[in-house]
Design goal:
GO molecular function: nucleic acid binding
Protein name: UPF0102 protein H1D44_07645
Largest sheet: 5 strands, mixed
Pfam family, one: UPF0102
Family: Belongs to the UPF0102 family.
InterPro entries: Restrct_endonuc-II-like (IPR011335), tRNA_endonuc-like_dom_sf (IPR011856), UPF0102_YraN-like (IPR003509)
Helix content: 25-40%
Shape: globular
Number of strands: 5
Radius of gyration: 14 Å
CATH topology: Trna Endonuclease, Chain: A, domain 1
Order of helices and strands: HEEEHEE
């Protein structure tokens, strides 16, 4: 297995754990790992009547910065673009929100920091 395959497997595991953590908080999983030209949506979840696009960011430690710091304006634009594709492909028109779930540590000692409405579509 190559290191990029290892990294992908670790990322998928973190995203699964993140989805479970959010489901424990009352969200429901609709889709995960949605790929679009120019972007990807980690988790698409429902929170009441709101469709929530969740970006999961993981770091084993914060020596090189907090995972929340990695959601740059460029990354936000890509997420908004991907979300628009998702909405169009599924013919959806509903309230939407962009959340970021920062995950630090290694399983089973993960720390989650959930920022609801982390940014607006522009």
């Amino acid at each position: 297995m190559t290191s990029s395959t290892d990294a992908r497997a670790r990322g998928a595991r973190i995203e699964r754990l993140a989805a479970e953590w959010l489901m424990d908080k009352g969200l429901r999983l609709i889709a995960s790992n949605q790929q679009f030209k120019g972007g990807e949506l980690d988790l698409v979840m429902g929170h009441g009547e709101t469709l929530v696009f969740v970006e999961v960011r993981h770091r084993t430690d914060t020596r090189h910065g907090h995972p929340l710091e990695t959601v740059t304006s460029t990354k936000q634009r890509r997420l908004v673009h991907a979300a628009r594709f998702y909405l169009a492909r599924n013919r959806l028109s509903c309230p939407c929100r962009f959340d970021v779930l920062a995950v630090t540590g290694t399983p089973p000692g993960l720390v989650f920091e959930w920022v609801q409405g982390a940014f607006e579509a522009f």
